[in-house]
Amino acid sequence: MSRIPNTPVTLIARMAAQATGEDEATWVKFFELYQPVIRHFAEFAGARSDTDDVVQDVMVKLVEVFRSGAYRPEKGRFRAFLATITRREVINRWQKAQVRAADRHVSLNRTTAQEIAVQPEAAAMLDAKWRLAQHAAAVEHVLTRTALAQRSKDVYRAYVLEEKPIGEVAKAFGVSRNVVSQVKTRVDAMIADFESMLRD
Q1: 86 φ/ψ angles, rounded to the nearest 5 degrees
Q2: What one-character-per-residue DSSP string does 179-192 give?
Q3: Which SS3 state, helix, strand or coil, does residue 15 take?
Q4: d(CA 89, CA 55)
Q5: Contact in structure between 140 and 36 (CB atoms under 8 Å)
């Protein structure tokens, strides 16, 4: 089972303790861990064409926050803090797009970004999208960056992601239905383990 050496809690503590941000390895580890979540969230929130820019801008903001000492772990969980920064970046991009559209005399949706930010149903929707982004990033990590056998990854993709019937998957890979179920259970556990790391 794949494990990242530093949990997010220790990783975040190390980052917060470094006013200068000199420890490049810590930042690389942090980027590897959270970049997929930010990317998936931006996609789920509708910023598909801007995902690279959203990731970059969020990471720049995080560097600034950690270097300035503005992050205070006692005020709440890091995932909520990161989700808030990411949401704000997506909303800011949405606002700028609306302004550009208005400048071109294109009819606009009457809901403003501020209304989106304060409506309880919109906040709940963004939270749900954040959880989906965490799950998608965990699935991507397990299926692309772990030492799990390629055959197991392929069985999982076919059975869970492509939703093929268990009998069809078993036959295609020359294994029993029980083996397909065992692969699903094992990979689901790895995904859950990685998701728990993202939740600090």
Answers
A1: -65, -45
A2: HHHHHHHHHHHHHH
A3: helix
A4: 9
A5: yes
What dihedral angle (degrees, nearest 10) is formed by the CA atoms of 172, 175, 178, 181?
-50
- List alpha helices for the chain, DSSP H: 8-17, 24-44, 51-68, 78-103, 113-118, 120-145, 150-156, 166-173, 177-198
**Domain residue extents for the chain:** 8-148
What pTM does this model have? 0.59
In tens, the pLDDT along 121-165 reads 555 666 777 788 888 888 998 999 889 999 999 999 999 999 999
The C-alpha atoms of residue 41 and residue 83 are separated, in whole angstroms, by 9
Name which of 26, 23, 35, 9 is nearest 145 in CA terms.
35
Instruction: Quick: pLDDT tens for 34-57.
Output: 888 888 887 877 666 778 888 888
Task: For tokens 């299926």, name the residue.
Answer: 143
Q: Would you give the DSSP letter of residue 75? A: G
- What is the token pair recorded at 40? 């998936």
From the number of C-beta atoms within 10 Å of its C-beta (0-12, 13-18, 19+), residue 95 rates as middle
Written as six digits, the tokens of 95 are 């606002």
